[in-house]
Amino acid sequence: MSTAHSALLAVIDCATATGLDVGTWQLASTLVSCFEQVSHAAEGVSADRSHDPTTQARSRRFLAHALSRVGRRVEATGILKDSLIHLRTAGDRTGQAHTHLTLAITLSRSGDDVEALAHAQAALALYRDVEHRAGEGHGLNAVGWLHGQLGDHTAAFTHCGQAMDLFRKLDDRNGEAVTWDSLGYVNHRLRRYTQAGHCFRTARELFRSMSDQTREALTLLRLGDTLHDLGDRRATRDAWRRALEIFTDLDHSDAVDIRIRLAGLPRVEQ
Question: Which of 226, 225, 213, 222 lies closest to 252, judged by CA?
Answer without folding.
Answer: 213
